[in-house]
Amino acid sequence: MEASIIIHPRNRKEASLLKKVLKALDAQFVLKEEKSESLSPSNDPYYDNPENVAELERRIADLKTNKEKKVVLKSKEDIKNFLAI
Prior knowledge:
Layout: H1 12-24, H2 50-64, H3 76-83
């Protein structure tokens, strides 16, 4: 019976040690680089921070439920009125 084991080393040192052990056991193994699933198509690190993502999700939910008021500034006059200048 063949079995698969998936191991997620926490750092490069652990990965290196695991490779050495597997080679010493003459075990077959495949190394696969995991890419984190980023919300950003450009892999912007801003989206890797769970607090940033949570804040964005909160704001989106607020907009959908109309809790957050929208401000639409269409002209210079709107901007002046909004900024009270």
